[in-house]
User: Fold this.
Amino acid sequence: MSLTRRDFGIGMCSCAALSLLGCAAAPPARDTGPVTPGYRPAGESDELGLWATMDRAERELADSRFLIRDPALAEYLRTIACRLAPEHCGDLRQYVVRTPLFNASMAPNGMTQVWSGLLLRCLDEAQLAAVIGHEMGHYLQRHTLQRFRDLRDKANFSAFLGLGLAAGGVGLLSTVSDLALLASIFAFSREQEREADAVGLELMSGAGYAPIAAAEVWEQLIEEMAHSTAERDRGVFFATHPAPEERVDTLRNLARDRRGDTGMRGRERHREGLRQVRSLLLDDELALRQYGRSEALFARLLDRDHDDGYLWFAKGEVHRLRGEEGDDALARAAYARAARAREAPPELHRSRGLVALRAGDDAAAREAFEAYLRLVPDAGDRAMIRSLMP
Assistant:
């Protein structure tokens, strides 16, 4: 059976949830302190059952066709994790999931998921380290284990409550209470989020990164979501990471106590780490057809790198694909800027030709199409492009 990314993600969550509920009768472990290097639970504890579930999920993830398997990127992410928590370096495994949304997670067994949309949205290594450090805070403080135990207790209570309500003739209320229970499964508590923020900032500061990067990430994400028309964009990360604007203030205050904006930013290292996958990340973002959001994202990235040809090309693609009044002129201007920048892709000329053709500028269209075919002589769309030539 063929699985979509959404099916894969839901399947992982469902498998974990069912397995957790199946462990309801397991005795709880006593040790709930911070995770120590090389730790693995022993005995017949509920924590061991949780780890077994995550181990199975990791085996499925490792074989997934939705992973980006780029050795340079994998090494880059490993380096960041080891810089943040060197003593735990050997306990963590990083997987890049090809999903153009902002998210990351770290399971109790050290399985770390980084979604490709997160990589694109971080302006430098310090911002990426801020998100990884936050997830590491959840991992080190065993927040998932705490959530599991809370879920197990709620599941037992819910079953008891359902029986009682049904006996009283008000079974409908048990359904409503179960929905509320289900909603609570996927969210850390405010206290856990605050603790993860504090641990993450401490790790960042200790590793030499600029702590202010943590607040910047949230500011950027909130601003970007204001341009989105898709409710799901708010859902994936904000559903499990409450991010009201006041949280930015809290992060700024925490950063101020830990060197503020001084420290490593790692802009060039970040660019080099993503070099082989940047075109893929930008193409996937465009494929979502959230043009207002993408426009805001590309503008922010261009603020940091004015001479990035692929970014200017992507900005032009936003306008060409959206096709609203005035967009063609904006697309042509962005393409012209891309042509003067570094590392512009050959597809730039194909898009210039399409916009020129739509504007009735046959000479410019032919010139652009010919440039594209010269640069990509074995292009898969060569026949189609030749058929379009005026």
Summary: The radius of gyration is 24 Å. DSSP finds 19 helices and three strands in the chain.
